[in-house]
Each structure stands twice: as structure tokens, then as C-alpha cells.
Amino acid sequence: MKRPPAKKVSASAIQEQREQVFPHHLNPAGILFGGEIAVWGDKVAALCAMQHCGMPVVTVVQEVRHEEAVKLGEWLLFKASVNRVWRSSCEVGIKVFAENLFTQELRHVATGYFVMATTKRTTSGARKWMPEVLPETTEEKKRFCEAALRNNRRKREEKKRKEKRNNHQETA
Ligand SMILES: CC(C)(COP(=O)(O)OP(=O)(O)OC[C@H]1O[C@@H](n2cnc3c(N)ncnc32)[C@H](O)[C@@H]1OP(=O)(O)O)[C@@H](O)C(=O)NCCC(=O)NCCS
Hints:
Elements: E1 7-8, E2 14-20, H1 34-53, E3 57-66, E4 75-85, E5 89-99, E6 106-118, E7 133-134, H2 138-171
Parallel strand pairs: 1-7
Antiparallel strand pairs: 2-4, 3-6, 4-5, 5-6
The structure holds coenzyme A.
């Protein structure tokens, strides 16, 4: 399938997306509910993926690791970039920081990986392929390599999940 021309990571990277923690974002323990980071992160990841591929996308897999608790009133800074593209899917990495707006001090509070897939299809019904991504910096190249390892693991998990579902259907 024909791909659109490759794009640099920096062409779609999101450097500054901010959210503030309000009372309705807290869990019963009085700290930020983790699901809020997943929702905000998903939006940033979708925006980043769409800026890269120029097509609508859906979220296939969400993986978020919460490094530190976040308190009421804190400002969160989201950064996102496309780590790697396969055919119709890509991995977007996000990094979330609690930011002190007055001192610019950053505290790393979460990391996420989102697999996003295009929803546009060719006339034959296949999902359209995304442009390749071109990592340039040492950090971008490192993320590009690590994304392949994570995707191999996801594919193994997906295979197991499908096998389990098929076995379950056969015995039901
Ligand atoms: C996820 C979904 C798109 C997969 O659909 P499908 O018909 O099985 O499509 P495919 O098998 O062609 O998968 C699409 C892409 O996702 C990738 N993919 C699917 N499952 C994956 C997994 N567990 N891990 C990594 N990649 C995965 C495929 O490899 C493919 O990418 P590629 O073309 O780059 O190889 C489909 O199940 C869906 O639409 N789910 C709902 C999505 C949704 O509602 N998200 C929340 C709202 S945005």
C-alpha cells in the first residue's frame, strides 16, 4: 500500500498541553484520580497521532504508569510524540509533569504509551497506512527502538488473548 511521505517526530510532537487539578478530579483519598491522567493523556496522544498521519484515529491500547501522586490545584504539563509507526498504527509516548508555574520546576508524575490506529480505509477496505516517522535526536532514536520491544510484547499478549477467547468459545 502507498504511504504518504515520511515525517519527522518534531513535526507532530506536542510540547505544551496543560490541565489543572480541580476538586472533581480527586479520588476518595484526596489525590488526583488516575483515570483523569489516562483521559487527558488519551486526548493528547490522539491529537499527536492525528497531526502525524493527517487522518482520524482510534485508541487501540492504553498503558499508563503513575509515578507520583498529584495534589489538588497542581498544574499538569503533558508532552507527547510519535515513537514509532507500523502500518495503520503507531505508538505515541506521553510524559506528564506536575509543574510549578512560578519556578518552572517539573516533577515527573506519569508516563504513558498509546497505540493509535487509523480509521480511514482504502477502496478495498484496508486501513490506510500512516506516514513513516523519522527519529532525529538520540532520545527519539532510543524511543523508536524501545517501541518495537513494547509492541512485540503487546502482540504476544494479543495472540494469547485471542487464543483464550477462541478456546472459551469452543467450550461454551
Ligand atoms: C482496535 C481496533 C481498531 C482493531 O481493529 P481490527 O479490525 O482488529 O484491526 P487490525 O487488526 O487491522 O488492527 C489495526 C491496527 O492495530 C494494531 N493492533 C491491534 N491490536 C493491537 C494490540 N493489542 N497491540 C498493538 N497493536 C495492535 C494492528 O497491528 C494494526 O496495526 P498495523 O496495521 O500497523 O499492523 C478495533 O478493535 C476497534 O475499533 N476497537 C475500538 C476502538 C475504540 O473504540 N477506542 C476507544 C475510542 S477512541
